[in-house]
Design a protein that fits this description.
The complex is a heterodimer of chains A (408) and B (154). Chain A is an alpha/beta fold. Chain A is built from 16 helices and 17 strands. Chain A has two domains: 217 residues, NAD(P)-binding Rossmann-like Domain (Rossmann fold, 3-Layer(aba) Sandwich), CATH 3.40.50.720; 183 residues, FAD/NAD(P)-binding domain, CATH 3.50.50.60. In chain A, the strands form four sheets. In chain A, strands 3-2-1-4-17-16 form a six-stranded mixed sheet, sandwiched between helices. Chain A has a six-stranded parallel sheet with strand order 6-14-7-8-10-9. A three-stranded antiparallel sheet of chain A has the order 11-12-13, with no helix packed on it. The two termini of chain B are 14 Å apart. Classes of the chains: A alpha/beta (408), B alpha/beta (154).
């Protein structure tokens, strides 16, 4: 029987585990996560008001509850266990840790300039997130992908529109209390090159408290995205101004004496412009936060395109391909890499090393039963109008994961 | 009864549901599960009952695994008169294109002469129901309709 370790329990890691166990139900598949909780991006990146998308976790639960995968939460690769030790203990190791760093915008640091990942991690109660930032005044969201739309939508929604999300009490109060004068979503490219999903643009047509203007649009000419954007223009359901701009390349920021951003200078479609800006949220993609030496590993990969770094070492998801592609695209890729792993592992001699003992003595691992205790607690603790109340610290998570044993 | 469950999926949710329906029906029936991506419209057999489970993707399109099937249906224009099917859709009412994928499939099947048994039932991922709580009663009802129909024909 062969053993595979998957590092990261987000969608790409889970789909890889699912694919391997579907093909080889008797294999041991161990899924590690640095957090005590599973699901990565689904818990901390998919928008809090997109619970339908998060329903994918019902598939992932089955990987652990029916397909036999084991969960090892609260284990950090490089700190609690080395990649070398894992590779010695398993026939294959799959890196699926994603990309969580906000890509640098090159505009320099200033008060009020915030990365979208930094903001959403704080909103979604990630234990490593900083405090909720000071978002106020004229807010510009820089970026033309779905993350930019998520940020815009959350900032534009009224409390009533956040019903049934899993936003916590603090994030909800923060959203309700933002002194925002206007929201602008700014694309560096022309509208035709924007990477929004048309379906996510149409979703904005249901916002209840906004007045939307879409500028810099070309003729639709049958383009679904342009049609969707055109359909938003003029929507007036409430007082909050929302503006779409395209073809505006940022040239620099102006700050006040206190060091806070006050303006964004851009090269617009009709020449230079100075846009009032008290908060700039950059949603221009993600990069490696430096962990695991990802960029060097992938640069040296034997076959990066097919997810093979070296014999017995693989990569999937955003760790492999960079910050592009939706969950379905990454699923297809993970299932393909899973197939390749099965073939290559079976063609190689079994590894002799045993998995036991690769973690430091006394290290507290959260297993599946521990996560389910925490999950039940979070669901039961949901406040009015919410579906879950996340525990926000690692220590708090660990306490609730082990609660049952302590009670005995 | 000889049943084939065909699924069209993007995220795997429809595949999981197809397997749940198979598990529920297989004590009493011969049940196969196939991805629509592996199914040719020329293989429809009037002797079998087809239960189709499909999500919606993107701007109301067929999910990726159903797209080759959709293209083949349009290209081959098969005569499916005598073929019976049930249809269950998966969607998310957050989006305007809620459940158009299964509606496309219904239109393709009916245009080819196949007969829809019962109602097309749709599940809303943003609603409070679990998909299987709607899909298992749906599947049993469609099977019962098919059995009645066969009994009447016999």
């Amino acid at each position: 029987m062969r053993k595979v370790a998957i590092i990261g329990s987000g969608p790409s890691g889970c789909f890889t585990a699912q694919g391997i166990l579907k093909a080889r139900p008797d294999w041991t598949v161990d899924v590690y996560d640095t957090l005590p909780v599973p699901y990565g991006l689904v818990r901390y990146g998919v928008a809090a008001d997109h619970q339908g998308t998060k329903a994918i976790t019902r598939q992932f639960e089955r990987i652990f509850e029916r397909q036999g995968a084991r969960f090892f939460g609260n284990v950090t690769l490089g700190r609690d266990v080395t990649l070398e030790a894992l590779r010695a203990a398993y026939d294959a190791v799959v890196l699926a840790t994603g990309l969580s760093g906000d890509r640098d915008h090159g505009l320099g640091r200033a008060e009020g300039v915030i990365g979208a990942g930094q903001l959403t991690r704080a909103l979604y109660d990630h234990p490593d997130a900083g405090r909720l930032p000071d978002v106020r005044g004229e807010v510009i969201v820089l970026g033309n992908g779905n993350v930019a739309v998520d940020v815009l939508r959350l900032l534009a929604k009224t409390e009533a529109e956040l019903q049934d999300s899993d936003l916590g009490a603090e994030a909800s109060a923060w959203l309700a209390g933002r002194p925002i004068d206007g929201l602008t979503i700014l694309g560096r490219s022309p509208a035709a090159a924007a990477r929004f999903d048309p379906v996510m643009i149409r979703e904005l047509g249901r916002l209840q408290g906004v007045s939307i203007r879409v500028a810099d649009l070309p003729e639709a000419g049958g383009d679904k995205l342009i049609e969707a954007l055109d359909g938003l223009d003029g929507l007036a359901t409430g007082p909050r101004p929302v503006t779409f701009r395209f073809g505006c390349r940022p040239a620099g920021i102006d700050t006040d004496a206190a060091g806070r951003i006050r303006a964004l200078r851009v090269e617009g479609p009709r020449g230079p412009e100075v846009l009032a800006c008290d908060t700039l949220i950059t949603a221009i993609g993600f990069c490696c936060d430096g962990s695991l030496g990802r960029d060097a590993l992938m640069a040296a990969a034997e076959d990066a395109e097919a997810g093979r770094i070296a014999a017995g070492l693989y990569a999937v998801g955003w760790f492999r391909r960079g910050p592009r592609g939706t969950i379905p695209e990454n699923r297809a890729e993970s299932l393909a890499v899973a197939q390749r792993i099965v073939e290559e592992v079976e063609a190689a001699p079994p590894r002799a090393g045993a998995g036991a003992g690769i973690l430091p003595a006394g290290h507290e691992v959260v297993d599946w039963a521990g996560w389910k205790r925490l999950d039940a607690h979070e669901l039961a603790a949901a406040i009015a109008g919410r579906c879950r109340t996340k525990i926000t610290t690692r220590a708090g998570m660990l306490t609730l994961c082990r609660e049952k044993e302590d009670a005995r | 009864m000889n049943i084939v469950i065909l699924y069209g999926t993007e995220t795997g949710n429809a595949e999981m549901l197809a397997e749940d329906i198979q598990a529920d029906l297989q004590a009493d029936h011969a049940v196969e599960v196939a991805n629509l991506s592996d199914f040719d419209p020329g293989d429809f057999d009037p002797e079998r009952l087809y239960l189709i489970v499909s999500s919606t993707y993107g701007d109301g399109e067929l999910p990726a695994s159903a797209q080759p099937f959709g293209a083949a249906m349009r290209a081959q224009a098969p005569d499916l008169s005598g073929v019976s099917f049930g249809l269950f859709g998966l969607g998310d009412s957050e989006y305007e294109t809620f459940n158009q994928g299964s509606l496309h499939l219904q239109e393709l099947m009916e245009a080819a002469g196949a007969a829809l048994l019962g109602e097309r039932v749709v599940h809303d991922a943003s609603g409070s129901d679990l998909a299987e709580d709607l899909a298992l009663p749906w599947a049993r009802a469609v099977v019962a309709l098919a059995e009645t129909r066969l009994g009447a024909a016999a």
